Amino acid sequence: MSTPSQTVGPFLSIGLPWPDGPDVVPPGTPGAVTISGRVFDGAGVPVPDAMVETWQADADGRFDHPDDLRGPVIGWRGFGRCPTEPDGGYHINTVLPGALPGQAPHLDVSVFARGLLHRVVTRIYFPEHADAHASDPVLASVPEQRRHTLVAVASDGGYLFDIRLQGAEETVFFDV
Prior knowledge:
This protein has 176 residues and is mainly beta. It has helices at 12-15, 130-133, 137-140, and strands spanning 32-40, 51-56, 79-83, 89-95, 106-112, 120-125, 153-155, 158-160, 163-164. The strands form two sheets. Strands 1, 4, 7, 8 and 9 form a five-stranded mixed sheet that branches. β5 (106-112) and β6 (120-125) form a beta hairpin. The longest helix has 4 residues, at 12-15. It is globular, with a radius of gyration of 16 Å. The two termini are 28 Å apart.
């Protein structure tokens, strides 16, 4: 007999706490920005109990990881986790990532939410790197009419990036 499948929510904020939460960088870090947005379901209703995780390179496009061939960046974690609020809102405090070899600057994003059997994975690109978007192999694999769902909008010294889990304006998710 097999174990029945379960969705990945809705008790994420209880079961997956992260000590630094949405703070990828400490408050007051020079060049820090806030990426905020809301998570919506297929009917356009905010999802109040999702979890948004980000992982990114530092401002020079490097990771504190043994697979970074340029050598690890000691002390750079590059990870943030934020549960959504009752209005579906989330925010991540970070710095803009640098470009990776052959890729435009971006954040990798995972979303966990009720009704999902597995996390969904997407990316956030930034409008000021539009020239690099053309040569990014991942972004180039997305149909042109859908690419806008992966580009944040500059707003008040930060960025807005809404995540739509389904529907006409569904965010592009990747099969990883």
